[in-house]
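task queued by scheduler; priority normal; single chain, no ligands, no partner chains; default sampling; output format set to C-alpha cells
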Amino acid sequence: MTELTLWKKEELDKLRKDLDFRFSRFRRGFGVPRAFLERAEMFTTSLSETKDTLIIEAELPGVQAENIQLSVTDDKLSMAVKSSQDSVEKDANLQSIVKRTRSFSKSIVLPCRIVVEEVKATYRDNILKIELPKCRPIEARGITIEEK
C-alpha cells in the first residue's frame, strides 16, 4: 500500500508543478503585475502521509518563524505569513529606506480527521514542517442479542 501512496504523491506533485508552470506562463502573457506572481510563487506546500500522520511541508524563503501563524481544526489547516524586507539605498546626498511587506495565507482541507491537541510544527532552513496525527478509526464492536 505504501508503494501506491508514494506513486500517487509523485504523480500529483508532477501534475501540480506542470499546472503551476502553465498558469504562470499564462498570467505573464496577459500582463499580470509581478507582485501577484511573486505572491503565488512564494508559498509552495506539499502533503505526504504515513500510516498514522499527515505531514505538510511549506517552503517559506526569507520568513522569520515569529511571522508565521497556524490554526487547525480536525479537518482544516490554515497558515498565514507576513514577510518584510528592508533595503537601504544610498546616493551622494540622499539615503532612502525601502520597506516591503507582504502577507499571504493558505487553507488546506485535510483528507482525514486529525487529533488537534497533538499537532507539532517545526521551522528550519526556510521549511515549515507540520505533523498532524490522524484520528484513530472507531472500531466496531460486536453486540450480543439476548432472547427474551
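post-processing summary
- The helical segments are 2-29, 34-41.
- The chain has two domains: 1-41, 43-136.
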